[in-house]
Every structure is written in structure tokens, then in C-alpha cells.
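Researcher: Here's a chain I'd like modeled. Treat it as a single chain, no partners, no ligands.
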Amino acid sequence: MSVVDMRLARKPADYKSDIKPVWCPGCGDYHVLLSFTRAFAELGVPPENIVVVSGIGCSSRIPAYTNCYGFHGVHGRSLALAAGLKVMRPELKVVVASGDGDGYSIGGNHFLHACRRNIDMTYVVMDNHIYGMTKGQPSPTTEPEFDTALSPGGTGLRPFHPLVIALASGANFVARCFSGEPNETASILVEAINHPGFSFIEILSPCVTFRPDEREWKNLVHPASVATTNDPAKAARRLMTDDGFNTGILYRGERKPYQPPVGRPQVDVSELERDFEL
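Model: Modeled as a single isolated chain. C-alpha cells:
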């Protein structure tokens, strides 16, 4: 059977586990899961050659709902775990699932350096501008005036701009999707996974439980009006004037991915031990 035949022979159901998701009714993450399985089927990669890594949060439940290898790590550390896995097993497809709290708050430092290192893996952040699992606290992307029980009248803080940060830190592929468009999201996931280097996708995924106003997102998202660019300066200008609802591939870079040699250690451990002898 040819590679093309193998790809066509795979179905999204082949990548979905028997575990029933426990997200709230109407959560955008249901469609994100659908996009994951559709993308994996389109790639045609056997489930055992895909690893889904996550941290903590509603979005981070995704590894349990896929039929691939998975690792549910600790809060904010998913990128560190995924980076170690990818450099030691470069033949695997590594996809990281995160949320705006997990990825940009406690995981913010790892986000910066994962972009900088440009390891060949894909980082998907389901952004709902709120902490959903812990009952509605403001997240790094929450609007400054959004009123919550823990921040009456809003935080007054400028929101984190993940796409700008990703570009400035060295991500090699930057895109935004909307969970309510699973086919488009799946297509961009395929491109991100196939693109060399660190790929970052922000998926606007409404939390209708704690942010019912986000139901309006379906009327606000729109395809980006300009073509994808490989020029970081052009990408920076468009992102700095972005309304937050442009979707599509916004930047496709050409940096060479980082991949250290795998196999025999470059330095003998005994040599290092001698340096510490008293």
C-alpha cells in the first residue's frame, strides 16, 4: 500500500479514545479535539507515532481523549516535557495542547524559550480569556475591564499578546484559528505539524460557562485580509495592528530547527566528574 493509500485509509475515529470528554456543554474544546483527530487522519501518521503532551486545565485533558501516546504533565511545564521528548525521539510528531492560563501564566517562561529554541514541534493554545477549570479567574489574556468576582471592575492590566510574543521570540510558524471552524483548523494544524521548527497556533475557543459573551466570537472572526508572509518585520506590523480575530496562517518562517545529535554522548561523564574532584 502506498503512502497516499495509507493516508486515505486512516479516519479521525482511529485517533479518538473511548474516554468521554467531560467539558461543559458548548465548550469550544470539543471542536478542537475534532480538529486534532481530523488533522492526524489527514497526515496519515500511525497513532503510535504521534505524542500529545499537555499541562493543566480544561484544554489539557486532550491527551486522554486521543488514541495516540500522551503525557499529562504538571502546570505550565508541557513545553519542557515535549522538548525533551522531541530531541530524543525526533522521528515522532509531537503536539502540545495548552490553554491561556497554563501556557501564558505559569508556563510563560517556557513559551518564550520554546519559540527561541525552534525545536520541531507544534504548540496549540486554546485561548478563552479566562481560567475555566478553576471557576472563572482572569487569565493573562482577559480584557482589562472584564468584571469577575475576584477582580471587580476588571484587572486594569494590559492583556498578553501571544502571537506578537511568539514571533518576537523566534517561533517559525504563527497562526490563529477559531474552534467553531474545525475543518479550517484541521487544515492549519496539518500545515503547522509539517512545517519545520516550532509552530504556534492560537485557537480562540469560547468558554460559554464563564464567558457567555464569547458566543459572539463566531460573528467576529474573519480570515486575515493579507497573505501569509515569511518576513518577520511585515508579520510584526500586521500583528501589532491585529484586532484579535484575524484567522489563518500569519507567519511562515524559514529558520532551521534545532536538533542536537542523538546517540553517543558528546562528552564522557568521567571527564565531567574529574572537574568536580576535590
